[in-house]
Amino acid sequence: MSPGAARLDVARVRGLFPGLSDGFVHADGPAGSLVPESVLRAVTQAMRVPIANRGGVFPSSARAEQLVSGARSAVADLVGGVPQGVVLGPNMTSLTYTMARTLAKTWRPGDEVVVSRLDHDANVRPWVQLAEEAGLLVKWAEVDIESGELPDWQYDELLTDRTRLVAVTLASNAIGTRPDVRSIADRAHQVGALVYVDGVHAAPHGLIDLAATGADFLALSAYKWCGPHVGALVADPALLESLVPDKLVPSSDRVPDKFETGTPAFELYAGVSAAVDHLAALSPDATGTRREKLATSMAAVGRYEAELFDRLDRSLRSMAHVQVLGSPLYRTPTLSFTVSRMRPRQVATELARQTICAWDGDYYARELFDALGVNETGGAVRLGLLHYNTVEEVDHMIESISALR
Q: DSSP letter at 288?
């Protein structure tokens, strides 16, 4: 069966998540997904046996090596990379700061970096701060306020032969916008710049193809796609080989190990592998290699989430007391909205009373919400759907938000 015809049995999927037993509608996926039983079991089982540090000649050390290599392979399959190019770390923000400090060693005063107002601050502030320290000019790609789009044509004016790095998101964690990252990356590569892409919010909603994005670096967070709190950075091993990160003298000089500091939580790496396996098995029609299964399952996820989200989005936009921020053409099943005469925290509190988990504030999309002018009144309220949400839950959200008038 082709990926385009694959199915998603949401009743079966929901049975995989013990956290759904609390009776709440978990519409806070962009802030972190629920964890399936298979991931919980993988982490628990990893902790039931001895695990030493890597590099030893005894079984418990070998187990640590297996957990690391397993997580690298899983992340590589998730995005179409290679295990040797997968750097693991505590979270996306820490890995981005590590890479920013590393790349900044090659920058010179007068060089330039380009960041966007659409991005999560984790793909903004590290570059801005390191650029300021190195004497670089920071340029900003702006968001169209009405549509929420990040126009790719503006990069023709932003990029010069002094541009060293372009940072851009694959999908906005606040309003769901999917910018044309490949078009932006092609423009950046024409002037010799590197492209750092935040794939955190995009990864749970569709198959990522690293090569197709044009990204030189792709950053991820496993807890957004049903895994534990682990970050990953994926790149070409040859590119990583050319860089010199800060590290302890005795630590490995190999790629990708030289970018990883300290002893990691090996047991969580078992959860990373299990989370990718969970995604690959979401559709009962998925067959073949893990990457092939991911293609089939994520296609089914994309179609299912799009149907749910269209129902939610259309209903909220029809309410006179609700303003949905932006209307991008290509988006994840994520939206932010405000309610007339109510602050976002009030709205989130009322929704929580109706057993709905919704986030309020700016969700670290500070630059975007400053540009939209909503931070002055507390930001907005966000709803984000994942593959375990249902039509009934969407209708409950619609009814509850309608009643806020």
A: S
| Angle separating helix axes 391-402 and 290-317, nearest 10 degrees | 30
Structure tokens at 142: 């702006």
Q: Please, are residues 196 and 131 in contact by the beta-carbon 8 Å criterion?
A: no
**Residue 225: which residues within 8 A CB-CB, separation 6 or more?**
33, 78, 203, 204, 275, 276, 279
Give the Cα separation of 306 and 257 in Å (integer). Answer: 38
DSSP state of 254: S
Q: Are 337 and 316 in contact (CB under 8 A)?
A: yes
Selected from 2.30.30.110, 3.40.228.10, 3.40.640.10, 3.60.20.40, the CATH number assigned to the domain covering 42-277 reads: 3.40.640.10
**Side chain identity at 286, as an amino acid letter?**
A
Structural domain spans, the chain: 8-35+298-402, 42-277
CA distance to 62, 336, 348, 382, 397, per residue, from 353 (Å): 49, 19, 9, 16, 12
Question: What does the pLDDT look like over 147-185, one tens digit per residue?
Answer: 999 999 999 999 999 999 999 999 999 999 999 999 999
- Region 384-393: mean pLDDT is 98
Domains 8-35+298-402 and 42-277 belong to one CATH topology: no
Give the distance, in angstroms, between the CA of residue 252 and the centroid of all CA atoms in the same chain.
28
Q: What is the CATH number of domain 8-35+298-402?
A: 3.90.1150.10
pTM of the model: 0.97
Q: In the chain, what's the furthest Cα-to-Cα distance? A: 67
Is-contact 39 19, C-beta < 8 A? no
What are the helix (H) ranges across 48-134? 59-79, 92-104, 125-134
Four-CA torsion 14, 19, 25, 31, nearest 10 degrees: -110
